[in-house]
UniProtKB/TrEMBL annotation:
InterPro entries: DNA_bind_recomb_sf, DNA_bind_recombinase_dom, Resolv_N, Resolvase-like_N_sf, SSR_resolvase. It comes from the Bacteria. One of its GO terms (molecular function) is DNA strand exchange activity. This is DNA invertase Pin-like site-specific DNA recombinase. CDD domains: Ser_Recombinase. Residues 6-154 form the Resolvase/invertase-type recombinase catalytic domain.
């Protein structure tokens, strides 16, 4: 007895704004009914959700379906209509070629059977595909025209529910809005997006479609102009929007500047492990070089063991075991934040300087750094001149960053300096937040360690020798 043809279902919906996949399920149900009526055997279903007909999103399920056809695992492809199956001429031609070579039939729930093995079937496929493409093109033009008109008027242009707002895109959803403000402030203060995403997921928070957070989705949320009551078109801010802003526009602009700064990327923004990486300064170098975290060999816990350590980014001429150094810096931080005047570190609104002026000065510093590098590349200045100029400009840029943060009320000390239990608040902060706090409070310069050990000293609990005199703390506040 000849086995029934193996039928594979392909279901796709181009817009699933609530993330519920209702359209895909509906397509699959009707396709299963067709398979049952025809007496075929349901082999497998490939689902593609939230992939548009004109967009550039890859279609991994469509690629897997074609691969299964090439392997001879499918006799019939069942789809709701041809537009659900192919979304452009390239897809359509590939589908026809693969099905023709393998003798696979295409059955449409809203249409007739299409046989790519015959000239008439291929012609029918081509005509239906061109008609569907024409409808998509017309719909796209109408939608884009409506969106351009809405953008020009500052109106909400529709789409997936924006996080922080209700489904109408205008009414603020208070609980989510508070999260948006917190993420924006912390991103502007330099915290890791990976760490922020992990914290959201740990607390059970999800995106507007119910998905877990990632560093990319946090970044996209913080960079979103609508948060500041602004409207974008083609990634450019074109004016004020017709909805209530969630965050202050100045705060949003600073977060954008921080997140789009040159050199900031996935590798830079990984989850932080070392408190002093990029924060502690090398006392041997005079160009503002900082220390980086790495594992190093140590004999403190026995021959051949390793431990977290810091090393100068300019070379291994200064190395320190991380744990005792971090403990010392932490103790200094907690002592400073435990003083009665710690709350005064959070400047009141009236004392904040002009933000636009500070941002302009910060952009000027960035430009001068680029000019300095160009002068060195042209041979106009020497290496020592480059190092000295870079050191001075970095110091100026750091001062301005602190001033900008203070002007916006984006102090990394907020929530710690004014906490009832400073030690508990510090312990609850992620490493990137702690780094921002250290930067705000002090410079930490690690000096070459003195030679020798005090009389009577011996290792305890496998810990190496640490001399606090080899660390210079320079208060900023």
């Amino acid at each position: 007895m000849t086995p029934p043809p193996r039928a594979a279902i392909y279901a796709r919906i181009s817009s699933d704004r609530e993330g519920r996949e209702l359209g895909v399920e509906r397509q699959e149900l009707e396709a299963l009914e067709l398979i049952e009526r025809r007496g075929w055997q349901h082999a497998r279903t490939w689902r593609e959700n939230d992939v548009t007909a004109t967009g550039k999103k890859p279609r991994p399920q469509f690629r897997e379906l074609l691969a299964a056809v090439r392997r001879g695992e499918v006799d019939v492809i069942v789809a709701w209509n041809l537009h659900r199956l192919t979304r452009n001429a390239r897809d359509r031609l590939e589908l026809i070629e693969v099905c023709r070579d393998r003798g696979v039939l295409i059955a449409l729930v809203r249409g007739s059977d299409l046989d790519p093995t015959t000239p008439g079937g291929r012609l029918h496929l081509g005509v239906l595909g061109e008609v569907a493409q024409h409808e998509v093109d017309e719909l796209t033009d109408r939608v884009l025209s409506q969106k351009r008109q809405a953008a020009a008027s500052g109106a909400y242009r529709g789409g997936r529910r924006p996080y922080g707002y209700e489904r109408d895109g205008i009414t603020v959803r208070s609980a989510e809005a508070r999260i948006v403000v917190d993420l924006t402030a912390r991103a502007a203060a330099g915290e890791s997006l990976h760490a922020l995403a992990r914290e959201l997921n740990r607390d059970g928070q999800t995106t507007s479609t119910g998905k877990p957070w990632s560093h990319r989705s946090v970044r996209n949320l913080v960079l979103r102009a609508r948060n500041a009551g602004l409207i974008e078109h083609d990634r450019e801010v074109i004016g004020p929007a017709g909805w209530e802003p969630i965050v202050d526009a100045a705060l949003w602009r600073n977060a954008v500047r921080v997140l789009t700064a040159e050199g900031r990327g996935p590798r830079w923004d990984r989850v932080e492990k070392y408190l002093g990486s990029g924060v502690y300064e090398c006392g041997r170098c005079d160009d503002g070089a900082t220390l980086k975290g790495r594992m190093t060999r140590t004999n403190s816990n026995g021959p051949g063991t390793t431990a977290p350590a810091y090393e100068c980014t300019n070379g291994p001429h200064l190395t320190r075991i991380a744990e005792p150094l971090d403990e010392f810096v932490t103790a200094v931080v907690l002592e400073r934040l435990s003083r009665p005047d710690a709350r005064l570190l959070l400047a009141p609104e009236a004392e904040r300087p002009d933000l636009d002026r500070l941002l302009a000065e910060r952009r000027d510093v960035d430009g001068r750094l680029s000019e300095l590098a160009a002068l060195f590349a042209d041979g106009t200045i020497t290496g020592p001149q480059l190092a000295e100029g870079t050191r001075k400009l970095r110091a100026e840029g750091e001062r301005l960053d602190q001033a900008v943060a203070a002007a916006q009320g984006v102090s990394p000390l907020a929530g710690v300096a004014d906490a009832e239990d400073v030690r508990e608040a510090w312990g609850a902060a992620v490493v990137s937040r702690r780094k921002a706090i250290v930067r705000a409070l002090m410079r930490v310069v690690v000096l070459p360690a003195p030679k020798g050990r005090p009389a009577g000293w011996s290792p305890k609990d496998g810990r190496g020798y640490f001399d606090p005199r080899a660390v210079r703390i320079i208060p900023r506040v």
